[in-house]
Design goal:
The structure is a single chain. The chain is built from 16 helices and 4 strands. The chain starts with 18 loop residues before the first helix and ends with a helix. Helix 2 runs parallel beside helix 7 and helix 3 runs parallel beside helix 5. Helices cover 69% and strands 2% of the residues. The chain is globular, with a radius of gyration of 21 Å. By secondary structure, the chain is mainly α. It has a domain of 212 residues. It has a two-stranded antiparallel ribbon. Strands 2-3 form a two-stranded antiparallel ribbon.
């Protein structure tokens, strides 16, 4: 087991805590770069979807995992980014400029949606974001001369500096670069005073306010940053599908994003990637094993929704830290074996003071 001895304050600001992190993450990055030349086009396409959903998961993680604000309408920001990217690239904008505009417009919409968060929280905030999601979906369907309405809108391949990412491997590398920058941006955000303010608000709004944290400002900022990151994911999502329509950004997509962060592990950057892998690979496993089930079950239309619901309830009840939390426990078990202490990973219950007297 590795023990880190800190000898300077600068060590607290390093992204990599030790050389092992540099080695393993560097090896992972090299493997991801080599993917288009090692695996087939199908798996390259699936991994592209994983990276896109990981970016969206990072955005929702900033809001739900680190600020503690629940949103069931984040697919709306995905749609805003997708349609902005489709419209601007269709007018001849280059990919980087359109991507920046998608992030900016999504952030502006996020500020508007963040205003209810100043007065409501918990289930009421979730209902407010859900209503916003319905409104955006309806706007995308009715604003036909811009969005194409229910007929949908075609999206061009990313083009920049005279180069077009028309092939699947080329677009995969573009998504990988954007995902890398998004991950580094979120990691640096969490190390900043803004990120620490988000975490303080999540843990206790009263305590955060008593320490001088402006709740309205930081909640609105959290919504804006979260929406901007999800808007970037939406822009990449549009380029990947090459065709978008309003029903792709409905309540089902919002629930998928929420499922991603909960199953992956709330409050963890790694959890966004674990959740994205789960969200993309689980339908593949369901399709693979459905032939082994009785026809009445295997051919049922709602089989995937039932499986996702069971998995979500299982994680909420038995593993609230998600897939990443389970991985941390397994890694610690292997590091301490055979000197682990019985009951080390037993789930403990925590109660607030108001709950202790009931």
């Amino acid at each position: 087991m590795r023990f880190i001895f800190r000898t300077s304050y600068r060590q607290d600001y390093r992204l990599a805590q030790h050389n092992g992190h540099l080695f393993w993450y560097g090896l992972l990055l090299a493997a991801l770069v080599a993917v288009p030349w090692v695996v087939g086009s199908y798996w390259t396409s699936q991994l592209t979807f994983v990276l896109i959903y990981a970016i969206a998961g990072l955005g929702l993680m900033v809001l739900a995992g680190y600020t503690g604000l629940v949103s069931i309408g984040h697919a709306a920001f995905l749609g805003v980014g997708a349609y902005t990217q489709a419209v601007l690239t269709g007018q001849g904008w280059s990919f980087p400029l359109a991507l920046a505009a998608s992030a900016g417009l999504s952030a502006a919409v996020g500020v508007v949606v963040g205003l209810p968060a100043l007065r409501v929280k918990g289930i009421y905030l979730a209902v407010a974001t859900l209503a916003f999601g319905f409104i955006v979906e309806e706007v995308m369907a009715r604003w036909e001369h811009v969005t194409g309405g229910n007929a949908g809108l075609s999206v061009k391949a990313p083009a920049m500096f005279g180069w077009t990412a028309s092939s699947a491997p080329a677009f995969y590398l573009v998504v990988l670069v954007v995902c890398l920058f998004a991950t580094l941006a979120v990691l640096n955000l969490l190390r900043s005073s803004t990120g620490r303010a988000f975490i303080a608000i999540r843990d206790s709004e009263i305590s955060a306010q008593s320490m001088g944290i402006h709740l309205a400002r930081y909640k609105t900022m959290s919504f804006a940053l979260s929406a901007a990151i999800v808007g970037v994911a939406g822009a990449l999502y549009a380029h990947k599908l090459r065709f978008i329509s309003p029903e792709q950004f409905g309540i089902a997509q919002s629930i998928d994003l929420l499922l991603l962060v909960v199953v992956g592990g709330l409050g963890s950057v790694h959890g966004a990637f674990f959740g994205a892998i789960f969200l993309i690979t689980m339908p593949q496993f369901i399709a693979l094993f459905k032939d082994w089930l009785p026809p009445a079950i295997g051919q049922a239309a709602g089989l995937q929704a039932v499986v996702f619901g069971i998995v979500l309830m299982g994680f909420v009840l038995f593993e609230p830290t998600g897939l990443y939390g389970r991985w941390v426990k397994l890694r610690t078990y292997l590091e301490l074996f055979p000197t682990y202490r019985r009951g080390m990973f037993r789930r403990q219950k925590a109660f607030q003071k108001s709950e202790r007297v009931r």
